[in-house]
Structures are given as structure tokens and as C-alpha cells.
Write a structure and sequence with these properties.
Blueprint (H helix, E strand, L loop, with lengths): L7 H14 L4 H13 L3 H14 L4 H13 L3 H14 L4 H13 L3 H12 L6 H13 L3 H14 L4 H13 L3 H14 L4 H14 L2 H13 L5 H13 L3 H14 L1
Length: 260
């Protein structure tokens, strides 16, 4: 009851009191782990979850909770065997697969994450997130052709999926396909024309393409849309200097330095 009402300190106190009466109850240790984790006592949470798993080696939820606690403690290498065993036992266990793949990604094991997402896709073949993540893994492994194919499938399901569009821009840029990068960036802009950062990104694409004056126009749009980070002043100033507007470029660079 305390945990359901987010009264985690009371839950921790009660669990400890009950454990003193019966130290063989795995459920009590699991509850103690949840309360301790919410109180950011991660070492205590790990100890409690581990005890619960030792007392009840069958309960899947206890192993799942222990795996998440290891992730919170940045111990993904210990979380992986727990999530892997759950996912091997039931490949339709979406959350086990989700956290297993996330662990791999956090450790930069993109091929292992990719293989996990592929298995998940077998039981959920219309999932935008899975296609997007497959594309992301291939992008990170510099397999851009495969990555583009997965992202295209994600966007067929949901043409407004922002992360898929962002990854697609990165794939086009990796292939120096600036025209398609610009087209995809425009799709992002059209989803939210008030987001100045998107214009800054578009300016960078023009910069990479070697179109300095077009880059300047996009940086100006970004600033008008209230994106005023130091990075935009830096790139805006550099673009103006490249366009031989030396005084304005130097003034813009100084403005960025003074503002931040």
C-alpha cells in the first residue's frame, strides 16, 4: 500500500520490520528493493533484489527488477544475463527484450541490440519503434543501406515519427546525399515550424554541402525562431566570414562569446 501511494520511506521501514520477523520471504525483499530504489539507495536496492532472487529462483518479476536495478547502477554487464534469460525463455516478452537491447546499446554493442530487435520484430511486425531501432543500430555500425531500409519501413507506418526522420537525415549525411538530407530535414521542420533548432540543423546541411549563403539564411531563420545557442552564433559567424562578410562574421562570433 505504501509503495502504491509513493510513500517509499514508510514502505522501507515496514519492509525491514517484517523481514526481521521472517527473513525467508522473497516478496518482502522485493518490496524493500523497490522502496530503496525510489529513495535512490541503489546499493541497498541491489542487495534486496538479489536476496529476493536467491530466495525465489523462479519468479521472473524479481529477476526483471534486479536487472533494472543493475542498469540504474550502470552495471549493464550484470543486467544482460538476467534480461537475456527472460527473453530466451519467452521471445514475446517485450519488456525483457527492450531492456536487453538497451543494455547492449549503452555498451555500444549495436549488433547484439540489432539481433534482439530482430527477434522482437517476429512477434510484433508493425512496430515503428522496432524498425526505427533496427535502423539506428545499422546507422551506428555504418551499414547505411540497411539502416535506410528499416527507417523507410518505420516511416511507412508513421510518417511523422521524429526520431526516424532524424536518423534518416544522419544516414543521408553519412552518404553525402545532401539533397535528400535537406528534403528529410524539411519534413522535420514542417512538423514544427516554431522549432529554431531545426533551421540550425538545415543550415549545417547547407554548410556541409558548400552552400554558404543558403546556410546563412537558415541560421537567420533559426535565430528569429528564438534558437540562440552559442553553436548557432559560431556557425553563423563562420558562414559570414566564408562569404567574405568579415566584419559581420566577427561581430556575430563575439556576440556568441559575450552571450554565453
Amino acid at each position: 500500500q505504501y509503495i502504491m501511494n509513493s510513500q517509499f520511506k514508510n514502505a522501507e521501514i515496514l519492509a525491514n520490520e517484517l523481514i526481521k520477523r521472517d527473513s525467508s520471504d522473497a516478496y518482502l525483499y522485493n518490496r524493500l528493493g523497490i522502496a530503496s530504489g525510489q529513495l535512490m539507495k541503489y546499493t541497498n536496492a541491489l542487495q534486496a533484489f538479489s536476496k529476493a532472487c536467491n530466495l525465489d529462483t523462479v519468479n521472473k518479476a524479481y529477476r526483471f527488477d534486479l536487472g533494472k536495478a543493475y542498469m540504474q547502477a550502470d552495471m549493464q554487464h550484470k543486467a544482460i544475463p538476467l534480461f537475456d534469460s527472460l527473453f530466451r525463455a519467452d521471445s514475446t516478452d517485450y519488456m525483457a527484450g527492450f531492456y536487453l537491447a538497451r543494455c547492449y546499446i549503452q555498451l555500444k554493442g549495436y549488433e547484439s541490440a540489432y539481433n534482439t530487435y530482430r527477434k522482437m520484430l517476429a512477434s510484433d511486425s508493425n512496430n515503428v519503434y522496432l524498425y526505427r531501432q533496427l535502423g539506428f543500430c545499422k546507422l551506428k555500425n555504418k551499414e547505411t543501406t540497411l539502416g535506410r531500409g528499416y527507417l523507410q519501413k518505420a516511416l511507412l507506418i508513421d510518417s511523422t515519427d521524429v526520431p526516424s526522420l532524424e536518423y534518416m537525415v544522419l544516414i543521408h549525411l553519412a552518404n553525402k546525399d545532401y539533397d535528400n538530407a535537406l528534403k528529410t530535414q524539411d519534413r522535420l521542420i514542417n512538423l514544427d515550424t516554431t522549432d529554431g533548432f531545426r533551421y540550425f540543423e538545415k543550415g549545417n546541411i547547407y554548410r556541409d554541402k558548400g552552400h554558404v549563403f543558403m546556410a546563412i539564411k537558415e541560421y537567420e531563420k533559426g535565430i528569429k525562431k528564438d534558437y540562440i545557442g552559442p553553436d548557432i552564433y559560431k556557425e553563423y559567424g563562420k558562414a559570414m566570414i566564408a562569404g567574405k562578410w568579415y566584419r559581420q562574421g566577427i561581430d556575430t562570433l563575439n556576440k556568441g562569446i559575450m552571450a554565453f
